[in-house]
Amino acid sequence: MPASPLRSAVLGLLVAGAALGFLRSLEDALAGYDARRARTGPPLVWHFGMAPVAALERCVAAARPHLPPGSVVAFAGPPEPRGDGFLRWRWAAYFLPERDVVRWRGAAGPGPATHVLACRRDLAGDSRLAAVARLPAGRLYRVR
Predict the structure, then answer these.
(1) Among 26, 45, 96, 105, whose CB has the most other CB atoms within 10 angstroms?
(2) SS3 letters for 5-60?
(3) Are strands 115-119 and 72-76 parallel, antiparallel or unpaired?
């Protein structure tokens, strides 16, 4: 007995509706998994050649000859509300692989650091620090 055209059309619509529902639920599941909808800002896209990375590299390269071997360096980047401080600190550690680079904690003090590398930041008012060198877009200090 041949299928009627109406029966075939209804069956085709049901299959198309089920497929559309499946694809929508799959899209929602994937969006929840990788949190695409939760992102509010740009992704972390620091790479070589970007202006902030190149400026940081110049600042660190100029400080390197003034740092004694085995010294611990506290890195002080510009105060940033977006949380880029972590990225700057890790890039500074990357550019100084022969030194231990820790984060500058401000009022908490330099900790175990013997030097403070301040890129795009001025710490001249801190009495615990003595200026060593002026760098491109920064300064190097020795902890007293």
Answers:
(1) 96
(2) HHHHHHHHHHHHHHHHHHHHHHHHHHHHHHCCCCCCCCCCCCCCCCHHHHHHHHHH
(3) parallel
pLDDT tens figures, 12-43: 999 999 999 999 888 877 766 665 445 444 54
Rounded to whole angstroms, how far apart are CA atoms 56 and 88? Answer: 8
pTM: 0.66
Task: Tell me: pLDDT of 74 over 50.
Answer: yes
Report the distance separating Cα 55 and Cα 137, nearest Å: 7
100 to 54, 59, 72: CA distances (angstroms)? 21, 17, 5
pLDDT band, very low/low/confident/very high, at 93 (cuts 50, 70, 90)? very high
